[in-house]
Structures are given as C-alpha cells and as structure tokens.
Fold this protein.
Amino acid sequence: MIKFTTVDEVCELVTDGTHYTPKDVGIGVPFLTVKDVSDDKLDFDKCSFIADEDYHTAKLGNSAPQKGDILFSKDGTVGKVHIVNTDKPFAVLSSLAILRPNKKLIESQYLGNVLRLPLVLDDAIKKKTGSAIRRIILADLKKVKFPLPPLEEQKRIAEILDRTQSLISKRKEAIELLDTLTQSIFLEMFGDPVTNPKNIKTLPLAKVCKRITDGTHQPPKWSTSGHPFLFVSNIVSGKISFDTAKFISNETHEELTRRCPIEIDDVLYSTVGSYGVPVIVKTDRKFAFQRHIAHIKPDSNLINSQFLCAMLASPPLKHQADRAARGVAQKTVNLEEIRKFIIFCPSFDVQKEFAQRVEAIEKLKATHHTSLTELQALFASLQHRAFRGEL
C-alpha cells in the first residue's frame, strides 16, 4: 500500500519570497519573480538585480533559496515547479514559495517531480483563492498530499524522470536556437535595419500592403461551438494558438470577416500588452479575432510574407513599436503608427531566397516540436506509472 504525506510533513521549511520589492539597481544579486522561473531554468539575464544589503535582508528572512530547494509559483500562474540546482546567490518575491525538503524523508528531485504530477498539481490549484490575482496561500500549500515511497524508490523514480526531463529540456533548447537562427540569417542577408549598410530600399509598411486593419471592436455573439475567436494571448511567437474557450457561429464569422477576409500568408500582429509579436496565417481554418490584433494583408507582388514577418520581429522594428506605444496600464500600438513603420524592401528574388531558407528552418523546428510532444507524452505516462507504483 502506497503511503501518502503532505508538503508540510516532509519539508524543513515552507515559506515564500520577500513581501516587498527591493530596488532594482541594475547590477548585484539576481531577484526573481514568477516570470523569471520555468520548470527548466531560472532566467538570470532578464530579472531584476538588488544590492547586497537587500539580499542579506532577504536571506535572513528565508527568502533566498538554496541548492536543493523547490520553487513553486503560488500567485497568478500557480504551479510552476523548479528544482534549484545552482549555488548562485539569489532572492525571490513572495509570488514564489520556497520548499526545503527534509533530506532524511524525501529527495529534492522526487518532490519536484511529484509536485508536477497532474493529480497533485490539480489539488494545489483547487486551493487557489482570490479574484483579481489567483493564488494559493502557504497554509493550503502545506496541506497538498502526494505519495511517498521509500528513499531508494524515490531515487530510482527521480532518475528515470530526470533522464526524460533532460531530453525535453535539450529539445526546447534546440527549438530556441532555431528561433534565433532566423534573425541571424536576416542580419546576414540584409544587415542592421537601423544603419542599413547595404543601402537597401526602405518604405513605410502601408506602401507594400493591400490593407492594414484589426479585429472586431465589439464582443461578438458567442456560440457553444463553431469557429474559434482569438485574443491577443493567442498570438505567440512563431504560431497562432487556437486554444480558446470562445467560439462564434458560421454566420457571425461571415459578418466579422466580410470586410477583410483572413487568408493564408496574411500577417497578424499583437498591438496591446505584449505588443509587437507577428505570426503568419498558415491555415485555411476559419476564425476571427479581437481588435488588439492587427491584420496585415501584404501585397504579394511587393513583399513576401515570410520576409515581412521576420522584419516585424527584428529588434529595430521592435524599437519602432516601443517608440509608438502609448498608454500606462497597457501600452498600445495603434494602426496608424503601424502603417508608418519603415521596413526594408529588397528585390523580390532576394526576399524569396530568404523565405526558402526560413522555410527549411521551420521544417526542422516542426520535427523538433513533434519530438518534444512525444517526449512530453512519455514523461506524463512515466509520471503516472511511477506514482501508482507501476514503474
């Protein structure tokens, strides 16, 4: 019979990060929030940095994790789990819980893996409270239950899962490297758009497009099923996510897209919040979207969609978007500013050459994504079997 325990019973310490945000001094000791943490890594490049005094204060308050601790995101995005495997000093904000395993009772790797188990994670998520920002409080996190085999069995399970997780991490790293390769090819072929060392012809974006508009400004009539209705969160780097809970009927779709049909090779561009993310429409699937997504319809006689998408994703175009963005709570880039974006307009043959090179990268990425999906399915199966005592 499998013994069950709780987080509180197997941890020497269950606490969280600082309940105040130390001043970001630009250099010093890393200070992480939920956005800087993933299952695979801690982002020490894009985080804040705090003074030594603030770090020592955080350390005295048990807000500085140690190697072997488990970080668990408890505010907003509940359920990110990271096993700390570095001796590098850093501190965290209170949105992250710090779990310090009792090594006589439980292995860090086992605890980290068991907290990722869907059934266990669901137990934690069901305990979330709040409305504006969803969170799980430490008292409830301590009560989360999970199976606890003997230490030797924990080590065996952890080793199997770690090997699979390592393959998943390597596959993700390969995909990230391929993502950067497109921009490297762009710079190699065309140079920096700011200095334009190759004297390539430039034009406002509107001059090479048939139309630049956006999605509907009014909430449509919803249906329980039908065609997906997308929001700005569905525009992610490299692809359109059709993961949505909102649907519209065929009739509503016709009404929303009559003035500007969505076609293959059109470019969508996020304009609010995480603005400046372009994606190419690569499907004839019917869908519609909100006004926070710009709909760019390139003139195929003047500009290649693949080239345009890479151009819009380049740092100089991001800089143009940053300068054009307005607002405080949520910055927005309006359509008029987008139409004014200055872009390269090299010969169409050169654009096609670039597109062909990018297409080769996309095919390789697709292979890696397929492999990643298979590995993640394998990991989930191994988790399920391991914690039922069948591995």
Q: What stands out?
A: The two ends are 15 Å apart (CA to CA). The chain has a mean pLDDT of 89.
